[in-house]
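Sorry, I am new here, but would you mind making up a protein's amino acid sequence and the tokens describing how it folds?
***
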Amino acid sequence: MEKTIWLLIITLIISCWNGGPGGPVSASGQTTDSSQVISIKGRFLGPRSKTIQEYDYLEPNHKYHLLPETEVQFSTLDGKNIYEAVGPDVVSLDSSGSVLLNGKALTPKGQPSFLQGVTAARVPGDQLAGIPLRRLQIVPDQEKRSSIHEVDGYAYLGENTTPGQARKAALATAKRQALEMARTRIESNTLVKDGKLQYDLIQSGAEGYVSVLEQKDHGLKGNRYHVWIRAEVEYGLKATDKKPESGQILSPEAPLTVKIWTPQKGYRKGQNVVVHIIGNRDFYARIVNVDSEGNITQILPNDYRSNRHFEGGRLYKVPDKGDGFAFMVMDNYGEEAIVVYASEVPLGQVKTKPAGAGLHGYSGTRGQLARETRSIRVAPVGGSSDSGAGFYEATWKFTTSR
């Protein structure tokens, strides 16, 4: 029996998610006349009956077979024209790049394509975390890259120093140490060290480059004041070749980066939304949806997939095979956001409550969620004095309409 549960602006329909087809298929080198598949529901076969997957290219003068009830959506490489087709049918491109369905030209849909903000290209021989993958260049709507450290700061009482002044000095010492730890950690990264990536520390308000996430005053012991802090140092990353979001960012040798996106930037009533996630190295993550009214729902982990640890170089989807729900746009149209919080160590625990369909809601604000998630436990590794961990937060926005 099918049960409909209202959640966010998306209706969660309890169903069996069929998932996509099998393993990846190599795509030939795309041309300006190519089109790119951005969504498949069912099976889509190319030359020699090879399975076509999302982000594969359709080349001119080839025939592609839509099996019965298969739904496919694809776009021109400039993202200006988007097409839809339902099987059983034969899709082809002529020499000018026009899309044909059973030999007749398809009319493009007036709908925003994910290719306006995303490009996904397979690069022969490219390796990510040991697995041949596409080189994804995805520009998030918001991004925050940081390093989190636990630091002890000390200051001594002098002849003219009050305990309050010593406390302030101990806190300042701890913040300076956190900043230096972050510098050392970032600069020791392979791609930064080799000069392929540059970084800039980001200053925020009067607090400077260091944000104190948690602080404990241990007070005076003898004539020494002791303060402990968990501090976050934010920085920006860019490629030296000046190309934004270079494929180097997804190298396992780069600082932690987790790409998150939906195949489209705009959805209409009745359409399903699928979220894609991939990281450049192993990571722990929490992924939430923030609807147009600010309601927050954790979509991964969920009751069907409780694991909070994810493999680098592996593409994850929500919903996917085994999830007992689907995301369908219904009401409360507007702007939505998918937010990923990721770290190299387990994330801080947050209190959620069941929201139906195996998902969980969060009753606090987005700022509170971000702060609680950053309550990570970091410890020195291999005798190093650096008790730090990389943290990454990104937001992908999309809109829904009638």
About this structure: Residues 31-116 form one domain. The first helix runs from residue 163 to 187. Residues 1-32, 111-136 have pLDDT under 50 and may be disordered. The chain has three helices and 29 strands.
